[in-house]
Amino acid sequence: MRCSVQAATISLVLLAASLALAQTPSTVPAGAEVFIGAPKRVPDGLVTALKTRLAKSPDVAEASLAMIYVKREGEVPHFLLFLKMDDTPDFVKDLIRNDLGNASKAFLADDESVDIMTDNSPAASAAVAQVVKPFYIRGKEDKK
């Protein structure tokens, strides 16, 4: 299933985390088409590594892993780690994103990246929830 949303409806600020120390915010231009879907393949060990780190971050309520594609020149589909967070100061969000970016990079190929989104807007949450279920929910143990 694929979900298309307009950037005017959802203001996305994405943080590329393929190189965690070189993270830079990226804003999707108004009117750009954004496609969110379930990943066909998730690198072995990625979800386990993320769950381990997320369990140490009490500010993160849920985490979902999707694919995102912003229709613009030079853009390629890449992973989107969507975090539902409590009311958390920006510097704490930055620390969490850096930690998760560092945990992710060992599992990504050279041509893969992950954007980490910490937006709790209803529109963004709904767009992600339409295509993927959270792989991490605070307080619930993994029974697999």
Would you list the SSEs in sequence order as H and E? EEEEHEEHEHE
Which descriptor suits the 3D outline?
A: globular
Number of helices: 3
Q: Low-confidence parts lasting 5 or more residues at pLDDT below 50?
A: 1-22
Distance between the termini: 24 Å
Number of domains: 1
Mean pLDDT value: 79
Q: Assign the structural class, choosing from mainly alpha, mainly beta, alpha/beta, alpha+beta, or little secondary structure.
A: alpha+beta
Q: Mind describing the biggest β-sheet?
A: 8 strands, mixed
Instruction: Describe the oligomeric state of these chains in a short phrase.
Output: single chain
Q: Helix fraction?
A: 10-25%
Rg over C-alpha atoms, rounded to the nearest angstrom? 14 Å
**What percentage of amino acids are in beta strands?**
25-35%
Report the strand count: 8
Q: Would you write up a description of this structure?
A:
With 144 residues, the protein is an alpha+beta fold. It has one domain. It has three helices and eight strands. Strands 1, 2, 3, 4, 5, 6, 7 and 8 form an eight-stranded mixed β-sheet that branches. Helix 1 runs antiparallel to helix 2. The two termini are 24 Å apart. The relative contact order is 0.26.
Question: Summary?
Answer:
This protein is α+β, with helices and mostly antiparallel strands and 144 residues long.
Structure keywords:
8-stranded mixed beta sheet, 3 helices, alpha+beta, 144 residues, disordered N terminus, 8 strands
